[in-house]
Amino acid sequence: MTAHPPHRFRSALFAPGNQPEVLKKLPRSHPDLAILDLEDAVPDTQSAKQQAREVAREAAGWLAAHHPEQAVYVRLNAVHSPYFSEDLAALTSELAGVVLPKLERAAELDEALHQLAERGLSHLQVMAGIETVAGVEHAAELLRGPVTSAYFGAEDYVADLGGVRSEAGLEVLYPRSRVAMLCRLAGVAAFDIVVTKLRDEGAFYEDAQLGRSLGYGGKLCIHPAQVGLAHQVFSPSPEEIKRAW
Amino acid sequence: MTAHPPHRFRSALFAPGNQPEVLKKLPRSHPDLAILDLEDAVPDTQSAKQQAREVAREAAGWLAAHHPEQAVYVRLNAVHSPYFSEDLAALTSELAGVVLPKLERAAELDEALHQLAERGLSHLQVMAGIETVAGVEHAAELLRGPVTSAYFGAEDYVADLGGVRSEAGLEVLYPRSRVAMLCRLAGVAAFDIVVTKLRDEGAFYEDAQLGRSLGYGGKLCIHPAQVGLAHQVFSPSPEEIKRAW
Amino acid sequence: MTAHPPHRFRSALFAPGNQPEVLKKLPRSHPDLAILDLEDAVPDTQSAKQQAREVAREAAGWLAAHHPEQAVYVRLNAVHSPYFSEDLAALTSELAGVVLPKLERAAELDEALHQLAERGLSHLQVMAGIETVAGVEHAAELLRGPVTSAYFGAEDYVADLGGVRSEAGLEVLYPRSRVAMLCRLAGVAAFDIVVTKLRDEGAFYEDAQLGRSLGYGGKLCIHPAQVGLAHQVFSPSPEEIKRAW
Ligand SMILES: [Mg+2]
Ligand SMILES: [Mg+2]
Ligand SMILES: [Mg+2]
C-alpha cells in the first residue's frame, strides 16, 4: 500500500515548505524521512501558507523524479487550523506520508483521515505530532492505525503548558517518557524531540542518547548535520543485532 | 461574582490561623493571596481548631477593613476530617476564596461545594489541594469549575506515599509534572510546592525556577521573604509580554 | 490464611530454581522473602524449566523443614508463557507465596488465580511482577487482592520498551514512580528494581535510597550481600518510628 516504505525511522529531516532550494537538498544527508514543512517553518498567514503549498507540491514532484529512493512526507498545518483543508492540495500521490501536527483528540485524527480518503490519499503513511498538553493526555487515542509513527514536540508542548524549556529538560521527562511508552504499546515508531542548538553536536548526541534510553527509535532533525548523528545513536550496534537473534 | 479577584496567582502566603498578629501582617509582603490556615498550621485537636476558627474569622474581618486590596482565602481542614463542617463557621462573606486541602475524589469536592452553597458562600473562589496519592491519581476529576486554582503539596504527598523527600526532588517529579499538566488542561491556576528551608533564598529561587519550567504559575509561600522571590520568578519578563502580543 | 506471613517486605532474595545448593543457602542472609526462581534465572527451554521445577519443589520442602521461619515464594513463568501450567506442579502447600512475573492485564491475573485455586493453593500470597510497558500502563488493574506485594522490573521494562538502561536511570523514573504510587493506592507492598552491579555496594545503597524516596518499601535482591544493605535502607529509623506514634 505504501509507495516508499522507509526501512527505518531513525531520522526525519524537516525543511521549510516555502524554500524550494532547501527542499531539493533534503536527500543529501540521507535522512530516513524528508519532511516538507507547511506548519511551524512557514509564517502564519494565508498568503505564506498558500505559497508554501505550491512550492512544496512542486518540490515533492521534483524529489520523486530525481530521488525516488527518498521517502518524503509533508507536514500539514493542524487539523483545527484555518489552513488544513487547503493544505491537502499540496499533497501528491508520490509522497510516502503525511504529518499531522498538534493532534489532540481522536475526532481530529478521524477528520484528517476522512479528508485524506476523500482525496484518494489513504495510502499515505501518517505521522502524528504529539506536542500539546491535551495531545499528551489523550495520546493513547491518537496512536493507532493508520498512524505508523509519531513524534513528541517539546518546544510546542512546553509553550502550551505555560512552562519554560531548561538545559536539563526535567520539565518534559514525564511527557517524553509517556509518549515513547504509548508509542511502544501501540506499535508506532517514535521520533524524539528536536534539538534546537544547531551547531552543538555534543548537545544533540547527548539528547539523542537520552531519547534512545527512553525508547525512542529516532529523532526529528532540523539541520542536515543532525541526520548522521541520529543514525549513529539510533542504529543498533552489532552486539544488539546479535542479541536479537 | 468574586469579591476580590486577584489579578495574578504568583504567590499564596500562608499564616497559622491561630496567630492573630501574624495573620494581620500577611499583607505586608504583598502576596497575591493571603491564606489564613486552619489546617496543617493548627494543632490537630478540636479545641485548637475551634480557637483558630475564631481567630481567623476576626482576622478576616480586620483584613477586609484595613487591607481591602488584599485577596484573602481561608484554608479549611479536609472535607473528610472531623473539623470541616465547623470550619465553615470561620468563613465570612468578605473573603475572596477558600482552600480545600487533601482533596481526593470528586464526591469530596461536591460535598464541600454543597456545604458552601448551603451557607451562601458559593461566590468564594476555590483552591484545590492535591497532596495525596489518591489526589494525584484522581486530579483530573478535581480540577474543574468552580475550582480556579490548585496546589501540589509535596510534603504531604510523599508522607502519604510512604516515601522520603530528597534534595534533588526526583521523588515528586512525576506527580509535580502531572498536576501542572492537568491544571493547564483544566484552565486552573497552578501553585507549586512549598520550600521548607525558610532562610535559604537560593533554594527557593532554584525550586521556583523548576516549578515554573514545569508549568506552575506561582508558589505556595510560608514566609514573607518568599513572596518577593516568587514574584521575581513568576512575573513574565518584558520579552515574554512582548511575545504574547 | 497465610502460612508464613513475612513481618516485613524489605528484601526479596532470588536464587535460580535449578541450583539446589544455592536455594538451600537462601536463608543465610535473612531476607524477608526467599524466592525460588523458575523464570529469568532458568534457561528458556522445556527441559531446563522441568528440571528447575523438580529442584525447586524439593528445595521448598527442605527449606520448610530446616528453616520454617523463612518465608519462601516461588516465581513461576509468565501466565501467557508455555511453562505456566506445568510450573504449578512445583508449588507445595508449605510455601508462603507465589510470584507472577510480567503481568499485563487483569485477565492474566484472573487466569493465574483460577489455576492456583484449582490446585488448592489459594492460600498463597501473590506478588505481581510489573515489568513490561503494558504492565505499567495497566498496573491499576493488576494491583488488587489477593495481590499483597508487587515489584517493578526495570531491565525487562526497558527491554520491552526498546530503550536502553543508563547510569542515571531517568528512563525509568516515570514508570518506577507510577508503580510505587499505584502500589500505595492499592495497599500493596512495593519492591524496587534489581541492582545488577553485584559487587558495588555504593551503587546498591544509592539506588535503594532513591527507591525508598519514591515510596518503595523494599528491594529485589539477587545477591546475599544486597539483603543487609536493603534492610539498612528500608528499616525505619528510631525517629521515624517515634514520629509514627
Ligand atoms: Mg511543533
Ligand atoms: Mg498539606
Ligand atoms: Mg523479569
Structure description:
Chains A, B, C: Mg(2+) binds at residues 131, 156. Chains A, B, C: Keywords: Lyase, Magnesium, Metal-binding. Three copies of one chain form a homotrimer. With 245 residues, chain A is of the alpha/beta class. Chain A is 43% helix and 16% strand. Chain A has a single domain, classed as Alpha-Beta Barrel (TIM Barrel). An eight-stranded parallel β-barrel of chain A has the order 1-2-3-4-5-6-7-8, surrounded by four helices. The radius of gyration of chain A is 17 Å and the shape is globular. Chains in contact: A-B, A-C, B-C. Chain A binds chain C through residues 173-174, 177-178, 180-182, 184-185, 209-210, 212-217, and chain C through 133-134, 136-137, 158, 160-166, 170-171, 173-175. One magnesium ion binds next to loops of chain B.
Which terms would index this structure?
disordered N terminus; binds magnesium ion; 245 residues; Pyrv_kinase-like_dom_sf (chains A, B, C); eight-stranded parallel barrel; 11 helices; TIM Barrel; alpha/beta; lyase activity (chains A, B, C); CoA ester lyase (chains A, B, C)
